[in-house]
Each structure stands twice: as C-alpha cells, then as structure tokens.
Amino acid sequence: MKEVQAADRTTQMPTPHSPLPDPLSKVAWRIVPFICLLYVLNILDRANVGFARLAMQDDLGLTKAAFDLGYGMFYVGYILFEVPSNLLMRRFGARRWIARIMITWGLVSAATMFASDLWTFYALRILLGIAEAGFFPGIILYLSDWFPDRQRAKMTAFFMLAIGVANVFGNPLSGWIMDQFDGVNGWHGWQWLFLLEGLPTSLVGVTVLFYLQDSPSEARWLSEDERNWLVAHLAEEDSQRQAQHGPDRWQAMLQPRVWLLIAIYFTVAVGSNAGGAYFPTLIKEQYGSATNFQIGLLTALPHLCAIVVMSLVGISSDRTGERRWHLAGSALLAAGGWSLVAWGPSPIVALVGLCLAQMGMMSMLPVFWTLPGVFLSGVAAAGGIALINSVANIGGFFGASILGQLGLWSITAILFSGSVLSATSLRRWHAGRSSTAEVGDE
Q1: Does residue 304 belong to any structural domain of this protein?
Q2: Residue 253: its pLDDT value, please?
Q3: Residue 60: which CATH number?
Q4: Of 201, 242, 310, 429, whose CB count within 10 A is highest?
C-alpha cells in the first residue's frame, strides 16, 4: 500500500527530469536585473569614497596613509558582522533582511557627508561596514536558492555586471557631482556626492520588501508546474550534495576547503579594493590636467572592458563546467595588467594595464562564487559563504595601504600568487558534478 501511495505521489509531483517548461529563464529575467540594480547602488556607495578622496583628503587635512587606513576601516565592521548577518538572513528571510541592509547602509553612506576630521571619518566608515555586512554573501546565497549549479556562474556573472555598470556610469556621475555641486549651499562637492548617492539606496531598499520573495516556493509569478519543477530540481541537487559531503554542520565552515577559498579570495580582495581606492588617483597622476568629470570617464573604461570579459568568462565556465583554469587564467590576466601599470612607460600603456587588471579581477568573481555551493548547503552555506567573504576581505582592509606603501608591483605579486594557488589546488572542480568536486585531489 505504501508503495502504491509513493508511486501516486511520484506521478503527481514533477521530478527534475519532468518534461515541463524550464522556468529558469523567467526566474532570471525577474530576479537578476533587480538584484543588479541593488548591487549597482552597493558599489556606488562603497566606491565613491575613492573618488571623493580627490578633494576630501585635503579638505579634512588627512595624510595619504591616514586616508588609506580610513578606506580600509570599512572592513572592520564588515568583517565582524558578516557571518552573523548572513545567518540572520536565513532566520528572517532574504526579502526583509536585504531591505534592512540597504536602508541602513544608504543612510550611513549619506551621513558620510558630515565627516569633519580623522575620527569622524573612521567612525562613519566602520558604521558603513556594519550596515552593509551580509549584503554580498546574502545575494550569492540567494542566487543559490534559485539557480542550479550548472547555471550559477552565468547568473553570478550577470549579477556582477553591476560592478562594471556602477563604475561605468558612477565614476563620470561622481566627477560631475563634485564639479557641479561644489560650493552649493556652502557644501563641498564630495559632501553632495555622498548625499546624492546614498539616499536613493535607502528608497530602493524599501521596494525590496514588495518585489523579492524568499524562495521559489513563494514565487506566484511562476506557474504551479514551473514552481514544482524548480523546487524539485534544487531539492535533488541539495540532497546529492549532502549525500556526498554529509549533512549540514557548523564544522563545515572550518573545513580546509573553506580556508583554501578564503586564501584565493584574499588575493582578489586586495587587488580589487586597491583598485577601488586608487584608480581615480592613478589616472589623475597620468592625466593631470583633466577635470573630475574627465577622470570619471577615463576611470569608467576599465570597468566597461570588464563587463564584456566577465560575461564571456562566466558563460564559458558554465558551458564547459570547468572552474580551475577559468579562475587561474583570470587571476593571471589581472597580475599582468597590474604589472603594466607598474611599468607604465606612458599614460596609454598604464590605462591599458588598468583595463587588463580590472578585466582579470572581475572575471575571477563569478567563477569563484560558484565553488562554495558545490560542497556547502543550508546553514553551512550561509555561514561558510559569509566566512569566506568576511575573512578574505581582510585583504580589502589592507588593499589600499599595501598599494600606497609597497607600490604597484606588490599587487601584481599578490594576484599572481592567486593564479598559482587556483591552478595547483582546484584540480577536480567541475560545475554540477559533486562526485568530482574535490579540492586538491590527485
């Protein structure tokens, strides 16, 4: 009798192999553009301090080293609150928690306009890190709740296009705001920059409450058949992952594979955050007579190149199921780009180097963030992804200071080490094939 009942349920409930319409395209069009918008605002509010430093550093009477440290202070709050924030998202749901993050970080970012000396600048940067903690790993976790392994690098790449889009449009916008609003109402241009780019984030955060759903089972914009197909498909992947790697345990966050990923991500965190802090300054050094708006346009070029290359790398990695060489090759491209900037016999060569560096660093990200989901799920995935992002972003804390104190060649060496580590350690990591997803196996 039980066997008959089980058979009846099998015929009623779609399996991952049922001949139903694949809903992933509908999910992608519904979710990815919106979270791209959220990430665009995130990048603007995080990176605009690198542009603001063109005037803010002198206005506050800060030394180069002091400003670099303040840039990194963001990661003090970010690192401390990253794991708790991601675990709280599992408790309260993605919709409410992502909305909370956006509303608070937008308000704190806008409040940075009131920085008046070294200590208020440091305090506001730490508060911004606390407010924003959990956003990026939360989105990565959210994508894993909606997309199977084989589609995740492509979806992550599309989501991360927001990095390039934010900088392509955000850098010229930041330069324009600083040029046009300087002195209005007695405020500096950089004060207007924080205000005009911070408040919209909080407003969009409110819309998250009405637009996102916590899981596919709540997606009423999918048909019942599409919803059942997707839920069953993701459940099967999750059960296979647990069968291969064991049930979720807190100990999963401490296994060697997690710390290997932390080491790899540390290298790109150093490079990308050094770039965020110094790209406008490096370009100003090469093109000294340019206005802030013109510097913004030139700074946008590396990010425009990165949009194209990152998309192609993510699609290629998903299509082939290969992760190791896509990740290692991207890191090597980034190292080569930074070496051109360091060598830089002319402004054109330096600008080409910045383009290559940004292309490589951004192309690492969509491939890298598919890897934790191969062996982590549930609570372990929430904690593990947050742990990787928070601990590795210690590199973000030191990135600007490393470049400022040790020079451009130091960033080249760090990203080259990331390429070597990826090539030598990720020997059998393939998308959607958990039986071969072993790190370091021969």
Answers
A1: yes
A2: 61
A3: 1.20.1250.20
A4: 310
Range of weakest confidence among 16-30, 34-48, 230-244, 358-372: 16-30
Distance CA 183, CA 186 (A): 5
> Domain residues for 195?
23-436
How far out from the chain centre does Cα 186 lie? Answer: 36
- Confirm if 357 and 341 have CB atoms less than 8 A apart: yes
Burial class of 12 by CB neighbour count within 10 A (0 to 12, 13 to 18, 19+): exposed
φ/ψ of residue 438, rounded to 5: -115, 135
Token output for 271: 């490079």
Q: How many domains does the chain have?
A: 1
Contact present, 301 and 184 (Cβ < 8 Å): no
Q: Which tokens belong to 319?
A: 């299509």
- What integer pLDDT is reported at residue 160 of this predicted model? 75
110 contacts 200 by C-beta, under 8 angstroms? no
Alpha carbon separation from 142 to 134, 293, 339, 400, 408 (Å, rounded): 11, 36, 36, 30, 36
List all residues 6 or more positions away from 348 whose beta carbon is below 8 Å from its beta carbon: none
Domain presence at residue 292: yes
Asked, for residue 15, whether it belongs to a domain, the answer is no
Q: Does residue 327 carry a pLDDT above 90?
A: yes
Does the pLDDT of residue 157 top 90, yes or no?
A: no
